[in-house]
Description:
This protein is α/β, with parallel strands linked by helices and 505 residues long.
Amino acid sequence: MTSSDAFDVIVVGGGPAGAVMAWSLARRGIRVAVVERAKFPRDKICGDFIEPAGLRLLHAIGCAAPAEAASRLPIEAIRIFVGAAVAYHEDVPYYDARHGLPPHGGLVRRRDFDAHLLRHAEAASATVFEASAVTGIAGTGGALRVAARSAGRDFTLRAPLVVGADGTESIVARRAGLWTNDRSRTVIAQRAYAEGVRVDRGEATICFDDDIYPGYGWMFPMPDGRANVGVGILAEACHHFSLSVPRLFGAFLEKLRRRHPACAGLRLSGRPVGGVVRGYGAAGRNHFDGGLLIGDAGCFVDPMTGEGITPGMESALLASATVARALDAGRFDAAFLSSFERDFRRHFDPTMRYLDFCATLLRNRHFRHFWLGIGRRIFAEASVDATFARVAGATFGGPDVRPLSILAQVWTKSATVLGQAGTQTALAVLGGGHPRPLRQGADAAAWAQGWRRSLVDDPRWTAAWLADLARASHAMQGMLWTSRNPRVEPGILALVGERAPGQSP
């Protein structure tokens, strides 16, 4: 072992969370190593979409190239299909310049995006070991050894702290006993790149349909007639109903060609690839003796959309502050590192707890006809009521998620569609009570059919789902009255500006 093998922190995984973590630590003068199993540039299963908050962060950390690439075809509009019909086709209602956010999202291929972020960390003095697979982690906090293998050569790095940024199947999380396989919050996705898409503006397409419920299909346009197309569906539904994601993806492409005028000539330019993400509802104790979990390894993923780039980068900035304090204090035990949980809960819970409740409520596939019918009406109302669209639409990726305002808007509008009994049903679910029957009609029939099929198909699963819904409702209720959304406030940007004493910009 030589001095070149010793670091202050070892980050396992060089994706967006790991790269931002390494950059943030390196600019503080902290000796940080990144161990990444792939050789960059490499592909990554993702929709490639970066939301406005993510673009703001990229500008803040001085990594403008991906943000500029995303702005070549800014995503400013959205077309939503429910079944075969267009249910909503407008500018994205919740994209505006408040909070210093750009009024658009954008796409950057992960092959390019991740490589640029990792090079940015390297330029800040992080040491990067690419094409290096971690084979083991030994020791205790304060004296950890990370064994890796690269090109047939074994080597070992040592540091007092290790950060797991190595994705859903994290070896760091497994070593710490924190890995989870919660199918109810795990999404299986398949995506491919396509060409032949005829778009003249940045307009994302989202498709909700019977066969990919609970989940959705997408088409995100890129310059020069290219697009990222894919589907994502809950792993629990795939397991319970024997669904094949590759078959769902193939069927989705055929429907997209038939239904979307810009996609009639869509053809794949490469083979479809698959992957998994795990939503924030599965996030537990992301600290342990000697380290932390961030990004996908810590389940920092939007439960409704599956978007993980921005929350992954946010989790890295929050964790870097914890790591810096630990190194200053010489404390590497779980008790000291638990401040990370306090910080990320304060930052994410006000929005993510509500989104997890929504995802839990919608995840019972037996109710797909009911919820898709309600969705058609809600999107129709959003088309004529801009305020409703802006407030309620934030559930699907808006930067300003205010649970009480959204629930008030959605259930007020739903009352005109579902009748008073529908609103009482929603409130009963929120309060952990029993659902009441809706008025007669298609909604009542779909509601009754959902309960009948769920109870007949698997009463034990239904009981477990209701218990989980009650837990999600309870966890959310403490956040209902908040008027703050920390994710769009300046606090996270303040972490970007932190430097070691005496360090120049």
